[in-house]
């Protein structure tokens, strides 16, 4: 079965779906009015240094200041010397301590150096967004600039050569390392991407020239750009996904908008001309996501409960600090005993969990509560199945073995907002908690409030305005309690349903 990359482009929204064996494997979404920030390079100004957090807030011209951690700081040696001298920590060797040798124009943080040694409020600094703003948090920033291309990632501020861990053939890794070493200029670092496993020397050289030229342009703009201000903007989501996802393993790229199709075609002709024939323009009717059955799959990806083929199911519960995934046998009763039923459910759940993490782009800490297994071999098999299924995921994962409590702890690198944050917002009623107070509980609140105030009011009638659901309970099941309060307080109680009220809201008017 083929693999397709579908691009649905409209003036108001860009949606991209990667289909593997006919199933939705990855989904990308961006609104032109809210373009992603990861990869953008800014001239920023340090607005606050926090020694207690070993971090700084940097104004880069966005709605919220960005967050720069001490390990992501990279500044000139002279600047560090000034910081050290200013806080009376310089001993005449601060330059050497920072850089290791006197000719190094840039330095990284060494153990013992604090954020206040490296940065000061009001200082100008070049930074790159490495994580999108999430919720109320600003963007995560770094001074370690990286510029990605088709086959290479350029790291202008390091001499390191890295090879993608997914290139497993040691001979290929060694050959690629030698090619980069021969091509790169002195002082330039590169990471060889997975797709470069089959790239020619000419492909690597072309990417390298493009990236070096881009870096020269960034440096030139940095000398004249305002502070704070944008000096380099990464590709939009369409070309970025084509750059990062379109490989020989993808059989077809289908675009449904002529102008976007031409942009994609031009990009492919520049960087991977041998794949040009795989780019196609979709017909106007039917809509591309309907034709491939993606629309329904996207909506399913927002559901809390996911059913397994065996009849079991998993529950995905995101929280502020982590995501919890619970596995249940559901309708599956098995045939040959409880242990086998549990094992089969867990094995199927392991594959589905890896798939859902990738599809929903769930990041951070993830706790998986598999059904308890007594057999050690079964626990090991489920752990291995989860690791094997996660190999398709491009994000970095760290998976720990099954704990004493039957839990699997894992982390998944978070670079952008997950699908739920992109497509949903907190409920107006519950504000994202998932629960509101029961109607009966609110009825009793109303009764207590009437008793509390009745003795202080001269009015003969109290009008209670409540949500219709609460009003119905007051007028029917709790009618006897309303009569009791009228006699006890000597007031007439009038219930008035207000359909526009929040379910938990109520008001009193004393007449």
TrEMBL record:
Pfam families: RNase_E_G, RNase_E_G_Thio. Residues 37-144 form the S1 motif domain. One of its GO terms (molecular function) is hydrolase activity. Its main location: cytoplasm. Keywords: Cytoplasm, Endonuclease, Hydrolase, Magnesium, Metal-binding, Nuclease, RNA-binding, rRNA processing, rRNA-binding, tRNA processing, tRNA-binding. SMART domains: S1. GO terms for cellular component: cytoplasm. Its cofactor is Mg(2+). It is found in: Cytoplasm. InterPro entries: NA-bd_OB-fold (IPR012340), RNA-bd_AU-1/RNase_E/G (IPR019307), RNase_E/G (IPR004659), RNase_E_G_thioredoxin-like (IPR048583), S1_domain (IPR003029). One of its GO terms (biological process) is tRNA processing. Belongs to the RNase E/G family. RNase G subfamily. This is Ribonuclease G. It comes from Desulfurivibrio alkaliphilus (strain DSM 19089 / UNIQEM U267 / AHT2).
């Amino acid at each position: 079965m083929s693999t397709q990359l579908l691009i649905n482009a409209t003036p108001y929204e860009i949606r991209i779906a990667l289909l593997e064996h006919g199933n939705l494997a990855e989904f990308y979404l961006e609104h032109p009015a809210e373009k992603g920030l990861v990869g953008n390079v800014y001239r920023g100004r340090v607005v606050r240094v926090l020694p207690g957090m070993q971090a700084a807030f940097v104004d880069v011209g966005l709605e919220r200041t960005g967050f720069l951690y001490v390990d992501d700081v990279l500044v000139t040696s002279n600047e560090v010397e000034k910081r050290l001298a200013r806080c009376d920590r310089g001993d005449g060797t601060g330059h050497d301590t920072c850089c290791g040798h006197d000719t190094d124009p840039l330095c990284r943080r060494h153990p013992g150096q604090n954020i206040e040694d490296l940065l000061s409020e009001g200082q100008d600094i070049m930074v790159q967004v490495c994580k999108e703003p999430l919720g109320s948090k600003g963007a995560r920033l770094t001074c370690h600039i990286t510029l990605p291309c088709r086959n290479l990632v350029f790291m202008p501020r390091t001499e390191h050569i890295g090879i993608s861990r997914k290139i497993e053939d040691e001979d290929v890794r060694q050959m690629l390392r030698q090619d980069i070493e021969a091509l790169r200029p002195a002082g330039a670092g590169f990471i060889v991407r997975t797709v470069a496993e089959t790239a020619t020397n000419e492909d690597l050289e072309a990417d390298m020239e493009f990236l070096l030229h881009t870096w020269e342009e960034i440096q030139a703009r940095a000398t004249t750009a305002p502070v704070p201000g944008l000096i380099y903007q990464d590709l939009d989501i369409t070309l970025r996904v084509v750059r990062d996802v379109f490989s020989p393993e993808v059989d077809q790229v289908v675009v449904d908008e002529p102008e976007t199709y031409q942009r994609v075609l031009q990009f492919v002709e520049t960087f991977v001309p041998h794949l040009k024939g795989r780019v196609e323009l979709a017909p106007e009717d039917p809509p591309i996501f309907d034709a491939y059955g993606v629309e329904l799959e996207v909506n399913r990806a927002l559901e809390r409960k996911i059913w397994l083929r065996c009849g079991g199911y998993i529950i995905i519960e995101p929280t502020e600090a982590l995501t919890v995934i619970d596995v249940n046998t559901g309708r599956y009763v098995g045939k040959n005993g409880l242990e086998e039923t549990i094992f089969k459910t867990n094995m199927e759940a392991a594959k589905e969990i890896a798939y859902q993490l990738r599809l929903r782009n769930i990041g951070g800490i993830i706790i998986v509560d598999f059904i308890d297994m007594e057999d050690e071999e079964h626990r090991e098999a489920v752990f291995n199945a989860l690791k094997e299924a996660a190999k398709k995921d491009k994000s970095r994962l760290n998976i720990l073995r099954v704990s004493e409590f039957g839990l699997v702890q894992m982390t998944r690198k978070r670079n952008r907002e997950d699908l739920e944050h992109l497509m949903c917002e907190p409920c107006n009623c519950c504000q994202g908690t998932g629960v509101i107070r029961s109607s009966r509980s609110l009825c009793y609140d109303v009764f207590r409030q009437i008793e509390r105030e009745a003795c202080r009011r001269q009015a003969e009638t109290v009008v209670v305005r409540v949500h219709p659901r609460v009003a119905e309970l007051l007028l029917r099941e709790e009618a006897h309690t309303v009569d009791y309060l009228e006699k006890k307080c000597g007031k007439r109680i009038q219930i008035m349903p207000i359909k526009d009220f929040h379910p938990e809201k109520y008001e009193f008017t004393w007449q």
